[in-house]
Amino acid sequence: MTLLLETQGLVAGYGPSPVLQGVDCSVRAGELWAVLGPNGTGKSTLLRAVLGALPWMRGTVRLLGQERSAWEPRELARRVAWVPQLFEPAEGFSGLELVLMGRSPHLGLWGLTSERDAALARTVLEELGVAHLADRPGEAMSGGERRMLLLARGLVQEPSLLLLDEPTAFLDVAHQVSSLARVRARVEAGLGAVAVLHDVNMAAAFATHVLLMRDGRVLAQGPVDTVLERERLEALYGLPMEMALAPSGARLFAPRAG
Ligand SMILES: Nc1ncnc2c1ncn2[C@@H]1O[C@H](COP(=O)(O)OP(=O)(O)OP(=O)(O)O)[C@@H](O)[C@H]1O
């Protein structure tokens, strides 16, 4: 499968000392990578470094076979979509308009959206079960509703690679499942995706691969079934964990109480 993202020896930070301490990773089409790790360990920093949004970095980042710095920004925006962790100002825009912003890298000189763009945005809103937000003003939306629109904006961009920073934060369990299921469906159809997640069980259910990060380093990475293990999670989070098999065969992880 096509190599969409590759980092080698990625060292990056904000202040004098690096956050990322030499990260090697690669993502192919048809893979959904969950990035797991404790707070402040560098998961978001990894995504930001991939996007080139950090004060300084060393090592290499290749996107779709080309050094990131060699990409023309607009061309790159057609291929790589970013679903950020934090809300952006949404006031003054309807839900449909917010989602249509994802089409900007594809628009012509005048930046006008077409009927096809609007139809695409409405399809994605329906796919995510939030069609009712199309005409709602941004200021009248809940945190979770805005998050669903951020995901819709990323999908409507029709990227080859989708980077998601805690896409399920603020979502109820049904919306967590529906949003990750939609991403996974796109991945089955050839998208590559990287999602920072905190819910180990969501990662186990929807990811194809996991990257475990601690203190700016990769602790382990690879296919979800082999890498996501109780002992590794104990080392990752520094607390005792339990693992049980559900009747469906799914593995369930939980911190050991007491
Ligand atoms: N803009 C910034 N300027 C300076 N330091 C920053 C900045 N953003 C993050 N950091 C620091 O870099 C480190 C890694 O942060 P990062 O956001 O990558 O962690 P994370 O693993 O995504 O954490 P969380 O799970 O809490 O979101 C933290 O120590 C954080 O305080």
Structural features, described:
The protein is an alpha/beta fold. Strand 9 (209-214) and strand 10 form a beta hairpin. The termini are far apart. It is built from nine helices and twelve strands. The chain is globular, with a radius of gyration of 18 Å. The mean pLDDT is 92. Helix 4 packs across helix 5. It has one domain (3-90, 157-255): 3-Layer(aba) Sandwich (Rossmann fold). The strands form three sheets. A six-stranded mixed beta sheet has the order 6-7-8-3-9-10, sandwiched between helices. A four-stranded antiparallel beta sheet has the order 2-1-4-5, covered by helices on one side. The structure holds adenosine-5'-triphosphate (ATP). Adenosine-5'-triphosphate binds next to helix 1. Residues 14-15, 19, 37, 39-45 line the site of adenosine-5'-triphosphate (ATP).
